[in-house]
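sry for the spam today, last one i promise. C-alpha coordinates for design, 292 residues
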Protein backbone atom coordinates (compact mmCIF):
# COMPACT_ATOMS: atom_id res chain seq x y z
CA UNK A 1 0.00 0.00 0.00
CA UNK A 2 1.30 3.47 -0.89
CA UNK A 3 0.99 6.56 1.24
CA UNK A 4 -2.32 8.45 1.44
CA UNK A 5 -2.75 12.18 2.03
CA UNK A 6 -5.98 13.85 3.17
CA UNK A 7 -7.58 17.31 3.21
CA UNK A 8 -5.34 18.89 0.58
CA UNK A 9 -6.46 22.32 -0.62
CA UNK A 10 -5.13 22.94 -4.11
CA UNK A 11 -5.47 26.70 -3.89
CA UNK A 12 -3.54 28.15 -6.82
CA UNK A 13 -1.71 24.90 -7.62
CA UNK A 14 -2.88 22.70 -10.50
CA UNK A 15 -4.01 19.13 -9.93
CA UNK A 16 -1.39 17.85 -12.38
CA UNK A 17 1.40 19.62 -10.47
CA UNK A 18 0.26 18.16 -7.17
CA UNK A 19 -0.13 14.65 -8.59
CA UNK A 20 3.42 14.73 -9.96
CA UNK A 21 4.85 15.71 -6.57
CA UNK A 22 2.69 13.11 -4.83
CA UNK A 23 3.82 10.29 -7.10
CA UNK A 24 7.48 11.20 -6.57
CA UNK A 25 6.99 10.59 -2.83
CA UNK A 26 5.20 7.27 -3.15
CA UNK A 27 1.75 8.73 -2.44
CA UNK A 28 -0.92 6.52 -4.01
CA UNK A 29 -4.07 8.46 -3.09
CA UNK A 30 -4.90 12.07 -2.23
CA UNK A 31 -8.16 13.31 -0.74
CA UNK A 32 -8.74 16.88 -1.89
CA UNK A 33 -11.16 19.42 -0.41
CA UNK A 34 -11.06 21.61 -3.52
CA UNK A 35 -13.55 20.81 -6.33
CA UNK A 36 -11.71 18.32 -8.58
CA UNK A 37 -12.47 15.41 -10.85
CA UNK A 38 -12.19 11.98 -9.26
CA UNK A 39 -9.98 9.32 -10.77
CA UNK A 40 -6.37 8.75 -11.74
CA UNK A 41 -4.24 11.81 -12.42
CA UNK A 42 -0.59 11.16 -13.19
CA UNK A 43 -0.89 7.69 -11.67
CA UNK A 44 -2.31 9.00 -8.38
CA UNK A 45 -5.85 8.18 -7.21
CA UNK A 46 -7.53 11.55 -6.66
CA UNK A 47 -10.63 11.64 -4.47
CA UNK A 48 -12.74 14.73 -3.92
CA UNK A 49 -13.88 15.16 -0.31
CA UNK A 50 -17.21 17.04 -0.37
CA UNK A 51 -17.56 20.15 1.79
CA UNK A 52 -20.45 20.12 4.24
CA UNK A 53 -20.64 23.91 4.61
CA UNK A 54 -19.63 27.02 2.73
CA UNK A 55 -17.32 29.71 4.08
CA UNK A 56 -20.40 31.73 5.00
CA UNK A 57 -21.69 28.86 7.14
CA UNK A 58 -24.43 27.82 4.72
CA UNK A 59 -25.13 24.09 4.60
CA UNK A 60 -24.42 22.30 1.33
CA UNK A 61 -26.56 19.55 -0.18
CA UNK A 62 -24.70 16.97 1.87
CA UNK A 63 -26.92 14.01 1.08
CA UNK A 64 -26.58 14.53 -2.65
CA UNK A 65 -22.83 15.17 -2.41
CA UNK A 66 -22.27 11.97 -0.46
CA UNK A 67 -24.28 9.93 -2.94
CA UNK A 68 -22.00 10.92 -5.83
CA UNK A 69 -18.77 10.78 -3.83
CA UNK A 70 -16.33 7.87 -3.52
CA UNK A 71 -15.83 8.57 0.19
CA UNK A 72 -18.08 8.74 3.23
CA UNK A 73 -16.14 11.78 4.49
CA UNK A 74 -17.68 15.25 4.60
CA UNK A 75 -15.35 18.17 5.32
CA UNK A 76 -16.17 21.30 7.28
CA UNK A 77 -12.77 22.72 8.19
CA UNK A 78 -12.42 25.44 10.81
CA UNK A 79 -15.74 27.00 9.78
CA UNK A 80 -17.65 23.95 11.01
CA UNK A 81 -15.30 23.11 13.87
CA UNK A 82 -15.50 26.57 15.40
CA UNK A 83 -19.26 27.10 15.55
CA UNK A 84 -21.28 25.12 18.12
CA UNK A 85 -24.71 25.87 16.70
CA UNK A 86 -23.71 25.11 13.11
CA UNK A 87 -21.97 21.87 14.07
CA UNK A 88 -24.96 20.59 16.04
CA UNK A 89 -27.30 21.46 13.16
CA UNK A 90 -25.09 19.68 10.61
CA UNK A 91 -24.76 16.62 12.83
CA UNK A 92 -28.52 16.47 13.31
CA UNK A 93 -29.06 16.65 9.55
CA UNK A 94 -26.61 13.89 8.66
CA UNK A 95 -27.27 11.56 11.61
CA UNK A 96 -28.77 8.92 9.29
CA UNK A 97 -26.26 9.30 6.45
CA UNK A 98 -23.55 6.89 7.68
CA UNK A 99 -20.86 9.49 7.15
CA UNK A 100 -17.88 10.86 9.04
CA UNK A 101 -17.60 14.62 9.56
CA UNK A 102 -14.07 16.00 9.31
CA UNK A 103 -13.40 19.38 10.90
CA UNK A 104 -10.71 21.55 12.44
CA UNK A 105 -11.63 22.04 16.12
CA UNK A 106 -11.71 25.68 17.13
CA UNK A 107 -13.66 28.37 18.95
CA UNK A 108 -13.95 31.25 16.53
CA UNK A 109 -15.01 33.67 19.24
CA UNK A 110 -11.44 33.35 20.55
CA UNK A 111 -9.47 33.02 17.31
CA UNK A 112 -10.96 35.58 14.93
CA UNK A 113 -8.10 37.57 13.30
CA UNK A 114 -5.43 35.37 14.91
CA UNK A 115 -2.14 35.08 13.02
CA UNK A 116 0.20 32.85 15.06
CA UNK A 117 0.02 30.53 18.06
CA UNK A 118 -0.57 32.23 21.39
CA UNK A 119 2.69 32.07 23.33
CA UNK A 120 6.19 33.17 22.43
CA UNK A 121 5.29 33.87 18.81
CA UNK A 122 2.40 36.17 19.70
CA UNK A 123 4.32 37.84 22.57
CA UNK A 124 7.38 38.63 20.46
CA UNK A 125 5.50 39.68 17.33
CA UNK A 126 2.62 41.51 18.96
CA UNK A 127 0.24 39.66 16.66
CA UNK A 128 -2.95 38.04 17.93
CA UNK A 129 -2.47 34.39 18.80
CA UNK A 130 -4.52 31.21 18.47
CA UNK A 131 -5.03 30.12 22.11
CA UNK A 132 -4.49 26.42 22.73
CA UNK A 133 -7.70 26.42 24.77
CA UNK A 134 -9.68 27.37 21.64
CA UNK A 135 -8.60 24.11 20.03
CA UNK A 136 -9.21 21.95 23.10
CA UNK A 137 -12.63 23.58 23.58
CA UNK A 138 -13.46 22.72 19.98
CA UNK A 139 -12.27 19.15 20.46
CA UNK A 140 -14.40 18.57 23.55
CA UNK A 141 -17.48 20.17 21.95
CA UNK A 142 -17.18 18.12 18.75
CA UNK A 143 -16.79 14.85 20.65
CA UNK A 144 -19.70 15.59 22.98
CA UNK A 145 -21.91 16.43 19.99
CA UNK A 146 -20.71 13.28 18.25
CA UNK A 147 -21.77 11.25 21.27
CA UNK A 148 -25.17 12.99 21.29
CA UNK A 149 -25.89 12.58 17.57
CA UNK A 150 -24.15 9.30 16.80
CA UNK A 151 -22.24 10.95 13.93
CA UNK A 152 -18.57 9.98 13.79
CA UNK A 153 -16.06 12.83 13.66
CA UNK A 154 -12.52 13.18 12.42
CA UNK A 155 -10.62 15.96 14.16
CA UNK A 156 -8.07 17.43 11.78
CA UNK A 157 -5.07 19.63 12.55
CA UNK A 158 -4.64 18.70 16.22
CA UNK A 159 -1.73 20.69 17.64
CA UNK A 160 -1.90 20.71 21.46
CA UNK A 161 -1.20 18.28 24.29
CA UNK A 162 -4.53 19.07 25.97
CA UNK A 163 -6.45 18.19 22.80
CA UNK A 164 -4.62 14.86 22.68
CA UNK A 165 -5.59 14.16 26.31
CA UNK A 166 -9.26 14.81 25.57
CA UNK A 167 -9.28 12.65 22.43
CA UNK A 168 -7.51 9.83 24.25
CA UNK A 169 -10.11 9.97 27.03
CA UNK A 170 -13.07 9.80 24.63
CA UNK A 171 -11.46 6.93 22.70
CA UNK A 172 -10.91 5.05 25.96
CA UNK A 173 -14.65 5.45 26.62
CA UNK A 174 -15.37 3.76 23.29
CA UNK A 175 -16.42 6.75 21.15
CA UNK A 176 -15.90 6.17 17.43
CA UNK A 177 -13.66 9.11 16.53
CA UNK A 178 -10.35 9.72 14.79
CA UNK A 179 -7.83 12.52 14.50
CA UNK A 180 -4.95 13.77 12.41
CA UNK A 181 -1.95 16.03 12.80
CA UNK A 182 -0.19 17.88 10.00
CA UNK A 183 3.45 17.41 9.04
CA UNK A 184 4.41 20.98 9.86
CA UNK A 185 3.27 20.52 13.47
CA UNK A 186 5.62 17.53 13.74
CA UNK A 187 8.61 19.02 11.92
CA UNK A 188 8.55 22.72 12.86
CA UNK A 189 7.85 24.77 15.99
CA UNK A 190 7.13 28.40 16.75
CA UNK A 191 10.89 28.89 17.19
CA UNK A 192 11.35 28.23 13.47
CA UNK A 193 8.77 30.92 12.75
CA UNK A 194 10.43 33.38 15.13
CA UNK A 195 13.90 32.67 13.71
CA UNK A 196 12.58 33.20 10.18
CA UNK A 197 11.76 36.81 11.12
CA UNK A 198 8.11 36.21 10.24
CA UNK A 199 8.61 34.71 6.81
CA UNK A 200 5.09 34.22 5.33
CA UNK A 201 6.17 30.71 4.24
CA UNK A 202 5.80 29.75 7.92
CA UNK A 203 2.21 31.04 8.15
CA UNK A 204 0.71 27.57 8.29
CA UNK A 205 -2.99 26.75 8.34
CA UNK A 206 -2.43 24.98 11.68
CA UNK A 207 -0.29 27.38 13.77
CA UNK A 208 3.20 26.29 14.77
CA UNK A 209 3.38 25.72 18.52
CA UNK A 210 6.00 24.96 21.17
CA UNK A 211 8.42 22.05 21.31
CA UNK A 212 6.48 20.72 24.32
CA UNK A 213 3.27 20.54 22.29
CA UNK A 214 5.14 18.91 19.41
CA UNK A 215 6.54 16.24 21.73
CA UNK A 216 3.00 15.35 22.84
CA UNK A 217 1.95 14.89 19.20
CA UNK A 218 4.79 12.48 18.49
CA UNK A 219 3.98 10.52 21.65
CA UNK A 220 0.34 10.31 20.51
CA UNK A 221 1.49 8.81 17.22
CA UNK A 222 3.43 6.23 19.20
CA UNK A 223 0.54 5.20 21.47
CA UNK A 224 -2.09 5.12 18.72
CA UNK A 225 -4.12 8.17 19.75
CA UNK A 226 -3.28 9.86 16.45
CA UNK A 227 -4.70 7.95 13.48
CA UNK A 228 -3.45 10.00 10.54
CA UNK A 229 -0.60 12.33 9.57
CA UNK A 230 -1.27 14.61 6.59
CA UNK A 231 0.71 17.17 4.64
CA UNK A 232 -1.51 20.05 5.76
CA UNK A 233 -0.91 21.45 2.30
CA UNK A 234 -2.67 24.53 0.98
CA UNK A 235 -1.48 25.65 -2.45
CA UNK A 236 -0.11 29.20 -2.18
CA UNK A 237 1.85 30.85 -4.98
CA UNK A 238 5.12 32.71 -4.42
CA UNK A 239 3.39 35.94 -5.45
CA UNK A 240 0.76 35.50 -2.73
CA UNK A 241 3.53 35.22 -0.14
CA UNK A 242 5.37 38.38 -1.24
CA UNK A 243 3.48 40.51 1.28
CA UNK A 244 3.88 41.27 5.01
CA UNK A 245 3.15 38.31 7.30
CA UNK A 246 -0.21 39.60 8.54
CA UNK A 247 -1.44 40.11 4.97
CA UNK A 248 -0.31 36.71 3.70
CA UNK A 249 -2.80 33.84 3.33
CA UNK A 250 -2.60 30.78 5.57
CA UNK A 251 -1.07 27.89 3.72
CA UNK A 252 1.20 24.88 3.86
CA UNK A 253 4.88 24.51 3.23
CA UNK A 254 6.28 22.95 0.08
CA UNK A 255 4.77 19.59 -0.93
CA UNK A 256 7.98 18.11 -2.33
CA UNK A 257 9.62 16.58 0.76
CA UNK A 258 7.07 16.46 3.56
CA UNK A 259 7.13 12.67 3.92
CA UNK A 260 10.94 12.48 3.89
CA UNK A 261 11.04 15.27 6.48
CA UNK A 262 8.77 13.31 8.82
CA UNK A 263 11.01 10.24 8.79
CA UNK A 264 14.11 12.39 9.25
CA UNK A 265 12.61 14.14 12.28
CA UNK A 266 11.47 10.85 13.80
CA UNK A 267 14.97 9.42 13.39
CA UNK A 268 16.79 12.45 14.81
CA UNK A 269 14.42 13.62 17.56
CA UNK A 270 11.98 10.81 18.36
CA UNK A 271 13.71 7.47 17.68
CA UNK A 272 11.64 5.89 20.47
CA UNK A 273 8.50 6.28 18.33
CA UNK A 274 8.13 3.05 16.32
CA UNK A 275 8.67 3.65 12.61
CA UNK A 276 5.76 1.31 11.90
CA UNK A 277 3.41 3.67 13.75
CA UNK A 278 4.38 6.58 11.51
CA UNK A 279 3.99 4.41 8.42
CA UNK A 280 0.51 3.40 9.63
CA UNK A 281 -0.47 7.06 10.06
CA UNK A 282 0.64 7.74 6.48
CA UNK A 283 -0.94 4.69 4.84
CA UNK A 284 -3.55 2.35 6.33
CA UNK A 285 -4.73 5.01 8.81
CA UNK A 286 -5.76 7.63 6.22
CA UNK A 287 -6.78 4.92 3.75
CA UNK A 288 -9.36 3.66 6.23
CA UNK A 289 -10.69 7.17 6.83
CA UNK A 290 -10.90 7.97 3.11
CA UNK A 291 -12.31 4.56 2.20
CA UNK A 292 -9.65 3.48 -0.28
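last one done:
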Amino acid sequence: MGFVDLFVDLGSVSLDQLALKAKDQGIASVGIVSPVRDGLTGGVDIRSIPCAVGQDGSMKEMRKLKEISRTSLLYGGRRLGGDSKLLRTVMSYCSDMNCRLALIPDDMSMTSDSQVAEGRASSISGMKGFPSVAESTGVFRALELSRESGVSVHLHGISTARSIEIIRSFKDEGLNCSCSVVATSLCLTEEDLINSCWDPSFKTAVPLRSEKEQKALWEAIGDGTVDVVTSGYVGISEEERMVPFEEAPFGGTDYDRWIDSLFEVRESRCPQIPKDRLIHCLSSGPSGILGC
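The radius of gyration is 18 Å. ok im logging off now
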